[in-house]
Amino acid sequence: MKKFFGKVKAWFVAHKPTKRRLIQLYAALLTNANLKGFFTGKIYTGDTKKMCVPGLNCYSCPGAVGACPLGALQDSLAQSGKSAPAYILGILLMFGLLLGRLICGFLCPFGLIQELLYKIRTPKLRKNRFTRVLSYFKYVLLAIMIAVPLIYAGIPSFCKYVCPAGTLEGAVSLLANIQNSDFYGMLGYLFTWKFCLAVALVVASIFIYRFFCRFICPLGAIYSLFNKISLLGVKLDKDKCIDCGLCVQGCKMDVKHVGDHECIQCGECISVCPVQAITWKGSQIFLKNTTPVGQLVVESGEKIALLELAKSNASVAVVDAQTDGVSEESAESAQSANIEAESEAAATDGQQAAGSVQAQEEASEPAMEGAKKSGRMQAVKAAFKRPRFVVEFVAWVVAIAVLIGAWIGYGVRKEGGVSVTYGVGDKCPEFILQTYKSDNDSEIFSTIKISKVTVINYWYTACDPCKAELPEFEKVYEEYGGEIDMFVVHSWSALPGNGTQGVQDFLDTEVDKNGRAWNSYKLTFAQDTQELDTYSQLGGKYAYPMTVIVNAEGKITFVNQGPCSEEVLKQEVEKALG
User: Fold this and answer.
1) Which pTM was predicted?
2) How far apart are the C-alpha atoms of 420 and 399, rounded to whole Å?
3) What number of H helices and E strands is found in the chain?
4) pLDDT tens digit sequence for 268-297
5) Which of 35, 230, 388, 428 sits at 20 to 30 Å (Cα–Cα) from 127?
6) Strand partners, 559
7) Distance (Å, rounded) from C-alpha 328 to C-alpha 339?
8) Would you list the domain boundaries of the chain?
9) Alpha carbon of residue 169 to chain centroid
10) Which CATH superfamily is 419-577 part of?
11) How far apart are CA 568 and CA 464, in angstroms?
């Protein structure tokens, strides 16, 4: 049994996560701290969703507590008209100047997913000249992503047609929840395309290191522009560098040199450099004596294979009691050696007493265990005396406290601020919402009064199924004349950062599938608000479109999550009319 537990311990020691992996995991948990969303199947839409997280993390993920920078950028470009979207550009500039692609290496949840996929034991495709050329494709995609929203307002092209994070973190997470089973009826060709693309990217990430990051991700392309000037990251001392090429040889990204635009600042090249020419920016200020212990130095121009260098470094043991950088392992080994020497001496002395050897050995076991424990305690005390260890320890304690606080905070919050929801058979409350001007509506605010049968349809400008059914809704509205009212209410949360002016521009400039201008419709276009969130009050689950029908007595008679055909709409209106 002792051997079994020894093997288990050895396995955990051999496979323990690195500090970078722990930081990646922490960042993923913190940016998806709304754990409650995975159980309720609802998207968090609170105040923190107005802010962008650094890495690629889908807005529609049930756990997401912030907006995705790419989604916010595309939406702001689509809605800003001729003016520059200063807010999101300022956020990206701040992230870039502070961290650069350090975000890719440490803070991006989707980067973590790809690295874990790459750990699956399969033959791997190594980097080569072809992958280096292919890595420039993400810059082409970035240019397209910026151009499409500007030319075709309201179309977040990357999020809508490409982003695998949106498919895996958002769509799949929502569909996996049994409470969202009614979403399956809304899936169409677009989801099929994105799901197949996401599966292809997942498979590619198993064989190619960070496939999406290297060849596709526009966010990485943006951050790469700041790599050379970012405050944090890795740096190369050219005066020390001997051009041995070990850093480039060992890097799995398509770098030509340390810190170039393809470098994700993971820092793994620091331990590989034989002359300590690679360090962290600002390490002299924040860390003391960060020089790796026992690192070999090679002569100028000498080439050493990466594996041989690793073995050489691993075999070197330098123990210097006067140096702050002495390793805990070396100290513990020295303690163990002293303890073993003392026990051997005690055993030798004991052999002089005939017949008492076994008794003395048994008596010495508790003493040896006590000595080992004492040695470990001394090593721990010595570690706590080091400034670097204390800083790291305190930082992790604070970080874990923040994470637990976020879990608790998002866990006890109210769902979207809505305390009461209404369903079929309930009396529908009256809402006062802002309306958009059209040829048939010049009011600024309108009250959704339930004095006759009322149809409320929820939509947003980039939702193709929403726009496709509106012509059929207007036919029904015209057919029943003054017998019914019909409101088309735009979501406040479907497009982060979307203002009323963006919707008004859509109505004034866009046309429907038949070429008819949207502002010529006789429907009343209104805007939902975060404070009221009428969509959630009427049972919405953040999937569009949604249709609600209320009879003349004010009772809800029909709620449909998803597209509603003209025939079904007529049938339900007839039922509401009685």
Assistant:
1) 0.70
2) 35
3) 25, 9
4) 999 899 999 999 987 655 544 444 444 444
5) 230
6) 548
7) 16
8) 17-224, 237-287+290-317, 328-350+361-412, 419-577
9) 8
10) Glutaredoxin (3.40.30.10)
11) 19
